[in-house]
Amino acid sequence: xQNQQFVVSLLVSNHAGVxxxxxxxxxxxxxxxxxxxxxxxxxxxxxxxxxVSWGDDYMKEQIVKQLQKLVDVKKVQLMQSERxxxxxxxxxxxxxxxxxxxxxxxxxxxxxxxxxDLSPDSISIEVTGETSKLNAFLEYxxxxxxxxxxxxxxxxxxxxxxxxxxx
Amino acid sequence: xxxxxxxxxVKVLIERGVDTVFGYPGGTVLNIYDELYKNSDKIRHYxxxxxxxxxxxxxxxxxVTGKTGVVIATSGPGATNLVTGIANAYLDSTPLVAITGxxxxxxxxxxxxxxxxxxxxxxxxxxxxxxxxxxxKLAGTAREAFDLASSGRPGPVLIDxxxxxxxxxxxxxxxxxxxxxxxxxxxxxxxxxxxxxxISEAExxxxxxxxxxxxxxxxxELVALADRIDAPVxxxxxxxxxxxxxxxxxxxxxxxxxxxxxxxxxxxSDLIIAVGxxxxxxxxxxxxxxxxxxxxxxxxxxxxxxxxxxxVNASIIGDVRxxxxxxxxMLQPQSRPVWSERVREIKNHPNNSLEMDSxxxxxxxxxxxxxxxxxxxxxxxxxGQHQMWTAQYYQFKKPRSFVTSGGLGAMGFGMGAAIxxxxxxxxxxxxxFTSDGSFHMNMNELATAVSxxxxxxxIVLNNSVLGMVRQWQTLFFDGRYSSxxxxxxxxxxxxxxxxxxxxxRAETNEEYEACLDEAFKCDTPVLIDxxxxxxxxxxxxxxxxxxxxDIILR
Lengths: 167, 554
Prior knowledge:
The structure holds two protein chains of two kinds.
Chain A: E1 4-13, H1 18-28, E2 35-40, E3 46-55, H2 57-69, E4 73-78, E5 84-95, H3 101-110, E6 114-119, E7 122-129, H4 131-141, E8 145-151, E9 155-158
Antiparallel strand pairs in A: 1-3, 1-4, 2-3, 5-7, 5-8, 5-9, 6-7
Chain B: E1 2-4, H1 5-15, E2 20-23, H2 30-38, E3 44-47, H3 51-65, E4 69-73, H4 77-81, H5 83-91, E5 96-102, H6 118-121, E6 128-132, H7 138-150, E7 156-162, H8 163-167, E8 169-171, H9 189-201, E9 205-209, H10 211-215, H11 219-229, E10 233-235, E11 250-253, H12 260-268, E12 271-275, H13 281-284, H14 287-291, E13 295-300, E14 314-317, H15 320-330, H16 337-348, H17 363-374, E15 379-381, H18 385-393, E16 402-403, H19 413-424, E17 430-435, H20 436-442, H21 446-451, E18 456-462, H22 467-476, H23 492-499, E19 502-506, H24 509-519, E20 526-531
């Protein structure tokens, strides 16, 4: 069985300890976790999580089934990649020497990124998109001196009527 | 009506039909214990010597009654002492509600005296748990905890209640006409039909029965299936008692220390119908060999168990009893004379005989001697060689009459479990088979049995070594007996007397029979110290990861 990356979306109760329950399930059962994002939904009783994981078909099936057993997990969905919009946000702070700004701006524009902070010797660039785009942007930025960076991990939503509904 | 949290908790216990609880009082559960005192006509509380004993007692009580066991402990050490008991209930799917006190909400997170975040500690060993910090949520939480523990695949649920919540007052609405609502989930007709097809196509079907059959009270349905399709039945340790030992289709326990016939017939089958079991590694051994050349149907209430340990060809999700009823109704009566004859041959094969030297006091004579006097009352064990011998030699007659730590394999389980089983079975005479190793772990609970005036016979198979580990050292470590030869000088007879129980010792079969004569006249706790050979091994044995080809018979 081949390992592949996949995305699981969850609706969970929005109260203390739920993140621990979900993440400890992954470590306890040796499930892989690449990234996990979580935020409140339009219904304040619920949060939505997006977990990017990898593994073979066996692991994929077990992850979904074991998550379904958690009382605080209201809905689990393995996202079909072709019907899903995936977005991730990254902020990169680079050191900018005199005269380098306009060249960096070209990259910012090409990647449809934006500058969110400017100081005499550094700029912070925000870039949003699929993980591959963020990776490409980061690769390009390596020619500069990267002071620090952070990224959120992808969040996912189905297209059109492909929805994650609380049953 | 306006009630305090402690009053609400006890009201919900009564509402949910709880009349027996086990526990140990302490600082953060004083208010709950005060309410128990006031309601002692409705709820009987048994104070053990250690919280672990209380948790095992609640577990044993739940297993023999089918009701949800309840255990109460204080914060910090009281709560952490429950952990082994909760893990045991989790791995054997016993319905259990553990109630712990915690420090006041304002002291949480400050490393206060006797503060432990027990909900975090027990997260991987409970179906779910709660920290209650608001009295308004207590009644709903407690009710939900009981529903969760007993519904679907049963298991332990913990409620951690801060001290201030126990004292705070809120409006309480009683649910006087509570009835458990475990609505049956629909069973897939398509899946049932697929199973019918696979069974009808099979030449050599074999039913592999697990603890789910016992917990869903599906014994008669399981036997009906075996009769309908003319198939033998092998059982996991948790499945024991689901089919009476004397039943012609009963082959015994499967797996590492299973009976030869049970494992051999399983390997020769072309279809395994697994009912209420997770295919533990102790039962399957080498997984590839286990499923080679056969199809597998899994009937199971927990969807996550399908294909978790063994890949299966078909599965039916649902309460085992409901599924079996439907399945039997859909199946035509089948007869498989060739397979039946082969199974008979295997069953009568000399390899299936487990005779020990009848001139000596052996595990076999100890267990069978007690069995012959017992009837169908509950039998508990600790963990180790004596546990496997009990599983092999004791001829169980009635479901829920065997209380053993299957999944966790927790030495020290026996004393608490036997106490709970005795109380749960209406104070009928209960047997505990234990060993010098296991008994030393929680023998303090003999005091609990004495104060409860329980009709409990504790039979210690005393070989002065840690026998199961020693057996592995003999077989796989060239006899290097690292830390398993105990140089203890404990006199179990004096010890029993010191606790206020009767104590006896047997070194021969004659002495043992005399001890049993005496013991079965007593209606208070008795201990019989049975001296057996330290080199006696549990056989047959399939080494870990092995198959029937690796079986060690003698």
